[in-house]
Amino acid sequence: MAIQRALQKEKAVRVAILNELAYFAVWGVALDFTTLYSYLQIKAGELMVKKQLEQLVKQRKITDSKGIYGIKKVKYPSSVGRRRQQAKLLNKAKRWGRALGLLPFVKSVVVINSTAYGNVHDDSDIDLFIITTPNRIFLTKGILMYGLKLLRQLEDQYASAGRFSLGMFLTTKGAKMEKDMMKVNEPDLVYRMITGIPVYGSAVWYSVLKNDPYLAQKLPNYIWPKHDTRIYGLGWRFLDKLDEVGYRRHLKHTASQAKTHHPDAFIRVRPDIINLHHKGTSAQIADKWLKIRSKI
Fold it and tell me: What is the mean pLDDT of the chain?
């Protein structure tokens, strides 16, 4: 019985490894062992994971290129140029993240999506996820959108390369990630969140992620950075009212947009969250992941 349980656990670990590598293969990204292990969605020791990686390499299901793992049948693009472009975009995000953090309502600025993954090119923008104090989310968005647009740093229909995209806002209260982030959670949600790179307020970002039961349960091997817990007050009632006005205007404007009613749209506009994916890609990513996974 014990031997059977051990074999079942080894099989489960191999499946989890293949699931993870297949997901990142969608983005053309291979993983080093530390990253692979920390993102693995099953509780396991490092020695067991290394053993199963060796087994999968022997079975010719995955490749091991000097400690960088990928799916055998996937052709990965050269990473040298992409790493250089990623570093350039992240350096810019860090400079601007500190500047955006001067606004007292901003508690964390996080780079997400392709720039965080490293799946970048010359025309890549920089997607930001902003965490604010409660009752300041719409004031914050208005100020940042206006300021970045004025400084020609906001992505628009004419220019996107190296510019910022502001589609994700959340308060320090957090949200139910599995209900409020995307239409199809598996396998995209967990990786999309945990790969975020905080360029300002890292403690707040990881606190929001760690306090979400769904993410915490899905990342049993992840070592969360230590930080002090802070409680943010509501502040002046005048600003509370102003933010509420911004919320109602934003809600009305969003509801009136035709693109909001697109079949692939995933929209959340509440006093604690702004999540605008007018053409959500989570379903397409899930399809690509399944296709890669079925060929292994």
Answer: 91
